[in-house]
Amino acid sequence: MLNGKIVKGIAGFYYVKSGDTVYRCKARGIFKERGIKPAVGDDVEVEIIEGNDDSLITEILPRKNEFIRPFVANVDCFVIVTAVAKPAPILQTIDRFLVMAEKAETDIVVCINKCDLTEQGGSRQRQKAAETKAELQEIYRPIYPVVCLSKDGEDDMDKLLQLIRGKTTALAGASGVGKSTILNRMIPHALMETGSVSDKTQRGRHTTRHSELFVLGDDPDTMIFDTPGFTSFDILEADEEELQYLYPDIGKFAGKCRYDNCRHIAEPECAVKEALAKGQIHPKRYESYKLQMEEIRK
Prior knowledge:
The chain is an alpha/beta fold. The protein contains nine helices and 13 strands.
């Protein structure tokens, strides 16, 4: 019996990495009977069966977190990727990903990609990209670590690699923001397919067909998911009370309101709205919070 981590699952087979060896495994039938499905990222116990090409997953260890689309488990850190342009960032979408990561209790890095566009194209395009980059930094740097990446490699990749060292990390972001390109830089041996961005829709094509987990560099404890999905999702299972704390810049003021059940929308003597008026909360973050609150209330 040995312990390992599922790094890939295809057609009913699970590939479990233990040390330097990857074992092809089947899952015990009792998991299906119990409605349990192994996920990429699961820590498992494996029985090696003599004379059989395939080993057997006998136990799935408790999960830190899990996600349905894509179906992966035990994410330590999310890198939330957005682009300065092509496609243009939508702040509410970025904030939805951040709420997802906060709810999963993971570390978070905000990655501003395609920063080379601040120096390419016409003067108006360059200016717009530069303004977008500056605004994203202004909004998110007070809350999360922020890195900027460029196609030319003159960027913060070393800083990003340091931030995720020793963690199991997943990239999340809208289609077309460059997640596969970033993964190709991190793990070139994986050869992820990249997709173009439609000029009409400014959305990229999904280019990853199954979830896989790769060791990053020479540190076996640093791993990164290549996953389809993490691009769009339904409203998260956050209730009205919880949402304020999934916005840490809002949550730190939430307990100072006059009313204990203040939702920071229309209530009087609200500490969050006072902080907003003083410039301690970015107005676009507050607008995003209000929009998500409206969705929860529907």
